[in-house]
Design goal:
4 strands
């Protein structure tokens, strides 16, 4: 899946979903369009993996059973 982005040099383009995180970390893009149509400004809006407190409790993910 390709994601519309705006690069740091103001060019627009499409990048593969798996490349997005690396481009964000490298400050190579300034904004991108989420699948729900919301425009995200890197460094302004919340992006997965950024901010928040570090959870220090027991690991609970992966313990859910689906019947």
């Amino acid at each position: 899946m390709k994601i519309p982005v705006v690069f740091a040099d103001e060019r627009r383009g499409l990048v593969k979903a798996e490349e997005l995180q690396e481009l964000i970390e490298q400050a190579a893009i300034v904004s991108f369009l989420r699948s729900d149509g919301e425009c995200v400004q890197v460094g302004v809006d919340c992006v997965r993996g950024m901010g928040g407190r570090t959870y220090r409790g027991p690991e609970r993910r992966g313990n859910v059973l689906f019947c």
